[in-house]
Amino acid sequence: MPRKTVARTARLASLPLGVASRVVGGWGKRLAGQDAAEVNAQMSAKTAEQLFSVLGQLKGGAMKFGQALSVFEAAVPDELAAPYREALTKLQTAAPPMSTASAHRMIAEQLGRSWRSRFAEFDDTPAASASIGQVHRGIWHDGRPVAVKIQYPGADEALMSDLRQLSRFSRLFQALVPGTEIKPLLAELTERMTEELDYRQEAANQRAVAAAYDGDEHFLVPKVVASAPKVLVSEWVAGTPLAKIIREGTQEQRDEAGYLLAEFHYSAPARAGMLHADPHPGNFMLADDGRMCVIDFGGVAKLPDGLPAPLGKLMRFAMADDSENLFQTLREEGFVRPGTRVPAEHVHAYLAPFVEPLLTERFRFTRKWMQAQAERVGDLGGQDFRTGRSLNLPPQYLMIHRVLAGSTGILCQLDAELPAREIVERWQPGFKA
Q1: Distance from C-alpha of 198 to C-alpha of 139, rounded to nearest angstrom
Q2: Are residues 299 and 432 in the same domain?
Q3: Any residues with CB less than 8 A from the CB of 272 and at least 6 apart, and which?
Q4: Cβ neighbours of residue 28 under 8 Å, at least 6 residues apart?
Q5: 338 pLDDT tier (thresholds 50, 70, 90)
Q6: pLDDT averaged over the chain?
Q7: Is residue 276 domain-shared with residue 414, that is, in the same domain?
């Protein structure tokens, strides 16, 4: 992992510079008579390739940002989506690995020089890579298969540097994923990075959620075996990654994965007092026995009282076309700033389409539906855009909003049909009158 700020900044700066040079080159080709659609396709493919190469090689905050972006690819118009879809999806599960020597050195620093005695076997080849660490497979001394998560050397220095620099280029990424607020996403990622860097905190989160779902027939959360600030050892879990189901799964698999994903996100705050705050397909798998395996608890929202009841009331009022109570609750919760003048009916018109999945017994989440929402709220000349600019996102709802948007993005990638209203009725406080 490149650690020097100057080197990392130079690589990140290559993204907008590369886009600019390709635009100029594209103009030249079109003037020379080449087909415009072909030129645009070539530019999109090369931009996507560069995006993956730079963010993936840098890992750290750059790759974490890429993973966060990837769940919103369903909002990208179809004519632009294909190359970005492939590149961003790669960031969910892949990155160039650190050397074997570096991995051994980190384990020795964290678990002690005699760390090998704690393992019956240890595979030097990484089984998976992530934004701030990579995972190796091993056998614990008691015979249990385990996953050994090792933080990249220099990850702490790189994370904050990346996120500061990415904020400077937020307008570029805004163009890649229309309808997504990039600056707030980067700000929220920056706030919780310090938590993700401490694997002891992640271990504590994982232990709590694993205990809450221990023996559950629908979910499998691996138990923690050992932990240190930069190494985490958990029981090994395996299954079909959601990324593979998105790519080639049957409709039955898509619907089941979508149902379990929604069930987990809505039930975890009530059952464990936490909301899994890293909703990308690399963190969820379908096991052979039908359970959903859930991993990576570095980022969570602590919700000891469960999801906030006003959120359920907002859903209910929006569904019932109750503009006045909707607006009043939004004002009480801080979504409408004091002194802001915006008609209640405009606010209802802005929010009502988002609760469409709750109006029927079953709803199919599609890319087309999500693209329509992104186009609606992102249309600079539309009323919904102006209304959205008048609203505020209170700090206590920031992470909940991002997780809900991210998990909805995955449901749309899955093209899953599920009883969303039934799940919300069971787990969302305030939803029932």
Answers
A1: 24
A2: yes
A3: 208, 209, 211, 212, 213
A4: none
A5: confident
A6: 80
A7: yes
Residues 371 and 403 in one domain: yes
Q: How far apart are CA 328 and CA 314, in angstroms?
A: 10
- Residue 179 CA, chain-centre distance (Å), reads 16
Distance (Å, whole) CA 281 – CA 409: 10
Q: What percent of the chain has pLDDT over 70?
A: 69
**pLDDT for the residue 88:** 53
Q: What was the pLDDT predicted at 426?
A: 96
- CATH number for the domain spanning 133: value is 3.30.200.20
Same domain, 139 and 253: no
Q: Which two tokens stand for residue 353?
A: 């389409």
Residue type, 389: R
CB 205 within 8 A of CB 222: no
pTM of the predicted model over 0.90? no
Q: By 3-state DSSP, what share of the chain in percent is helix, strand and coil, each rounded to 5?
A: 60, 10, 25
Number of domains in the chain: 2
Band of residue 33 on the pLDDT scale cut at 50, 70, 90: very low
Which residue do the tokens 């990155």 mark?
95
| Least confidently predicted of 77-91, 278-292, 348-362 | 77-91
Domain that holds residue 106: 100-154+195-235
When computed from its CA atoms, the radius of gyration of the chain, rounded to whole angstroms, is: 22
End-to-end CA distance of the chain: 52
345 in helix, strand or coil? helix
